Amino acid sequence: MTGHTRPARGMRDFLPEDIRRREYVASIVERVYRAYGFEPLETPALENIETLTGKYGEEGNKLIFKVLRRGEHEGSGETDLALRYDLTVPLARVVAEYRGVLPRFFKRYQIQPVWRADRPARGRFREFYQCDVDAIGSRSMVVEAEVCSAVTDVLLGLGFEEFDVKINHRRVLAGLLTASGVPELLHGTALVALDKLDKIGLEGVERELRDRGVPQGPDGQWLGPWRLLLPFWDGAVDRAEANRKSIAALRTILANDSAALEGVSELESILAYAATTTAGTHLRFDATLARGLSYYTGAIMEIAVADLAGSLGGGGRYDGLIGMFSGENVPACGFSLGFERILVVMTERKMFPPGLETAAADVMVTLFDVQGIADTLALAAELRRAGLRVDVYPEPDKLGKQFKYASSRGVRFVTVTGSDERAQGVVTVKDMQSGQQTSIARAEIAGWVASHIGRGSPAAGRADV
Question: CA 406 to CA 361: how far, in whole Å?
Answer without folding.
Answer: 9
